[in-house]
Amino acid sequence: MALRFFRMALLPYHKPHATAAQRIAHLRARGLVISQPNVAARKIDTIGYERLRIYFLSRRQLGLPGRPFIPGTTYQHIIQLYECDGKLRDACFIAVGQFELLLRNSISETLSHSFGSHPYYTVGAFKDPMSNLKALQAFASVYEKSKDRRAKHYRETYGHPVLPPIWTMKEFLTFGAAARIFQCLDSSVRTAVAAQFGVGSDEVFTSWIEALVDLRNICAHHDRLFNRSFQKQPKRLKKVSVPGAAPNKLKAILECLDYLLTQRGIPSHVTQTAGMIIARHPHMNPAEAGY
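Given the sequence above, the corresponding structure tokens read:
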């Protein structure tokens, strides 16, 4: 009954379909300067109005009747925000990818050094038997789904052990799977991996990994970085005061990423790169980009 009442209290949705030309007319009526409406309409057809909507809203006076645009706002200003966001995603995705490969390799090398080629069946490599089971299930799932020729070769060549050695298995792991497996490992293993990246606390290191997985997924799914507060936030590594920025913002995550990559001898300067991208788009307020 409570659910039925709640649903009855909600408003029905009545907005009709609108063409790109109608969207342009609506935007112009709200004060957006559009010098080439036909070109703008084609852009909306290409990108999608809902994808651009967050950028439009950022330049509207939401407290005024009709929510008009800030005077002087042009369609090109909005497109510039969108394009800046895309370039930030690209730069972040590349840098996070570098760390992902390093993490998978570090997990593999640390496990194989201490527990041999097939650590999956060694309880001592994991926090407890249940963590061992969770990790084993994750490894098995990744291996079963893999179309990689190396996975096919192992399946067609070897009968035992069922899973390939960890140095081969690491190549099939997604970043998310690697992060979940890392959390299943024994504290000594996690600490050893974290130390390779100059982080003395596996708790801090784990929070950085989670934040980077979140960032990677946002970039991979072409979601927005614009005006985003991140749910997964990196803890502060006190000995080096990283991150220095607010932990729910993009800059904080990139500061952590720069530190991790620099510790492994392959600095990416992604924090600086992102700042330069923002600077080249003057209509992007740095705070809107998490800077």
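The chain has a mean pLDDT of 95. Try to locate this feature in the token string yourself.
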